[in-house]
Every structure is written in C-alpha cells, then in structure tokens.
Amino acid sequence: MSDIQGELLVGMQKNAELFIFFRINDALQFKAQAKKRVIGRMTNARTLQEREGRVGERRRRQRAKTEAWMGSILGFAKDGLTQLLGPHRPRLDPAFERGADHPETIAVKVVHSEIGKVRPGAQQGHEHFGFRDGISQPGVRGVTRPSKPIYQSEDGLPGQDLLWPSEFVFCYPGQDPHDPVNPGPAPAMAAPWMRNGSFMVFRRLEQKVLEFPRFLGERAARLGMDRELLAARMVGRWKSGAPLELAPLHDNAALGADDNRNNHFEFGDDPFQRKCPYAAHIRKAYPRDDTGNEAEVQRHRIIRAGIPFAPEVEPGETTTRHSRGLMFVCYQTSIERQFEFIQRRRTSCRRARCRSRASSRAARALSSIRRRSPGGSPASRTSSDGRMSSPAPIVASPTSRPLARCIPRSFGPYWRRSPRARVAAKELWGSA
Q1: What CA–CA distance (Å, rounded) separates 3 from 108?
Q2: CB atoms within 10 A of CB 342
Q3: 380: helix, coil or strand?
Q4: Rg (CA), the chain
Q5: Which residue segment(s) compose the domain that 46 sits in?
C-alpha cells in the first residue's frame, strides 16, 4: 500500500481538488525538479487508509471537527512517457496510446488547470443535477473490509462486490472471466515499472443545470407523469440515492442515506423493467445480474473519483452562464476493457441494442414462467409488459456525454392501448 498512489484503491478525503495538466519538453530538467519538489509530497494508499480510519472513528463518536489534510498524485499521458523514457518505450494500452498533443519548447508548461469542489451544505456528495454520486463503487479484496465477514464475506458493504486488485492496480491477481469469486491471471505489464500503477481516465463533463429541470418538466407533462419520477427513471436512482429497485414509486431519503441498504439489490427480479428501466443510467453502466454472467460483468468495473466543478447557480440566473459540471476521474488496468467498454457497449448503446438486450432478458424470464406454469397462462398475462418502450434523447451539452441516452416511455401510448397494461400500471404506479 505504501508503493501505491493514493486514490487508486482508497478514495482521497477531499473538499476541493486542483487538476493541473502540463507538457514536458525537457526530460532531464523535469526529472531533476520532480525528485526535488514533487516525489516526496506524493500521497500513498496507506496514508489514505489511515485517514479513512480516523474519519470513521470521528463518525462513531459523532464528532463534527475535521482535519486539514493535503494530498497529491502524479500521472503521465503517452507523450509525457515518451519524453521521459524515449521513443522506444514499451507500448501500453491501445486506448492510452491515442493520447495527447506533442510537447513544445520549455521544461514544463501548464496547458490547463481547474479546481473542483464538493457542493455546499445538504448538497455535499451530490452532483449539479442534484443526484447523490459515487454510491456503487466496487470493493477491493485485501483493502475493503467486509461489513459482515461471516454472512457476506464476498461483499464490502452490502451489495458491494469485492474484486481482485489487478482490475485497478497492476501486478496482482485479476478477475477470472468465468468465476466471479476465485482469482484470475494478472493483466500483462508492458514494463516492470508499471507495478502498482494504474491507468487514469479524466473527462470534464458539462451539465446544463438550469435547462435540465425545464426539459424534465416538458417531457413529464407530455408523458403524463411526475417530473421527479421521470428523472429517477432516467438515472435509476432518486436524487437521495435511493434505487428504483427498492423504492420504485417514491423517494426514500432514509434508504438513500443508508450505505448498508442503498446498493444492496440486483436487477434479475425486474426483467420487464417495472421498477428500473433498462435504459436507466445505473442499469446500463453496471447491469449486475441482467446478463446472466456475473463473472464477465465484473471484468468491466472501474473505480470512480470525480468531483463537481464551477460555482453554484446564482440568484437570478435563469439560463446557464457558467460552465459547470463534473470532473470525472476513474482508475483501471485496461482502458479498453473497462472505461471504453462501459462507454461504447453500455451507456452509449443504440436503440436497437437496448431493445435487443431487453427482449433477450424478458424472453428468458417468460421462458422460465412457461416452464413453471401449465398452459403458459401466467406468461400470457405478463408477456405484453415485456416490450421495450420507445426511447427519446436527453438534453446534454455538446461537450459532454448524455447522462442517459434513452428515456423509457413507461406511461406512454403503450399503456393506454392495453387495458391489461393499464391495470398493471395502476397497481404498480398508482396511475394509469
């Protein structure tokens, strides 16, 4: 742990974070200055683990006093590594090698810097749209302690799967693609100096904070449903963090605040998306048991460490005047297999792929019902509910990816044209 940079395995305790992006043009001068001024200030994972223990102790004693902690980590893009190691350096992850611009003429030049800050007051821990962030994080075996070691030894917090370290840090056992519990081979390292290292992905995601509620209001009115419910069905959670799988009708702030309950669920008992749509952000990004292959799903996890940026909405501001959003950061040992897989194969899936996945999941569920029921009558009562509803796009800044690309029209024309579905809708949602 002393040789692993902080935040890779243990989240850094922070109220603000300064991101500095720079170019290296004089490798010898940079190395000398880094040894003199930077390396001794790096924060390791053991330090963060000790700090986390102190935070937990303060919470148990209900002490509000905080400590002034500083931390720093350092990483290099592909051009930086080329400057430091030469043009014949080992080739790394293909996605990493598609990196940044070529260097200029001085030793180090700052090309961008920006400060992220947690939001104030009751919005601490929430992103700018108001949703609680960072709930569903994987645990790391050997680092994350099981909260119930006797009864749920494979979980950190309830619902938090423990993964093998080399999903996030090189040179340890990784996940077995055929077994979610036993260790698999460690990912290949292109060079010995990669030991205890990781790939970091950074994205500056802009959010149209004032326009988003207007969009929700207009779309909710068109669909004839509550605006907050529409937002929750887009994300898969209410703003409090309560998941739709456990609170499908109304927000439950106590559930959202309870880390022992707010992530303790699966999607397998919801094949017809009556609680959480297939197109909801959390169900696309991490489908849990939807695919029927948990071992493979766990091979595409990431550790997230983002933070909001820009000021809060100002009094009298009716249209977004300031760029604000989320500094998204994640860690993994394969950008292609982890971050890019989630982006390309899950969260950015096209309509046909969403429909295919939903139809496949529903077909398996209906097949199971038919095998258990003579004559298939239960299947005939529920088969109409298994159809994937028509999606629609969400408003998003041109410089950011949409929070979710599809909005299932659960209260749309489909419910109105089926009397049986109207009855089911009324029983489930209190409205037809």
Answers
A1: 25
A2: 19
A3: helix
A4: 23
A5: 1-117
Whether residue 122 lies inside any domain: the answer is no
Can you tell me whether residue 222 is helix, strand or coil? Answer: helix
pTM: 0.77
Query: Is residue 297 domain-shared with residue 402, that is, in the same domain?
Result: yes
Q: Are 345 and 238 in the same domain? A: yes
- State the burial class of residue 110 (Cβ atoms within 10 Å of its Cβ: 0-12, 13-18, 19+): exposed
């456990």: which residue's tokens? 246
The Cα angle at residue 204 between residues 82 and 187, in degrees rounded to 5:
50
Residues 58-76 pLDDT 10s: 877 777 667 788 889 899 9
Domain count, the chain: 2
Catalytic residue among 26, 79, 133, 161: 133
pLDDT, tens digit, 9 for 90 and up, residues 93-115: 888 887 655 344 344 556 778 89
Where does a domain end: 93, 117, 141? 117
The reply to whether 220 and 73 lie within a common domain is no
Is residue 133 part of the annotated active site? The answer reads yes
Quick check: is 169 in a domain?
no
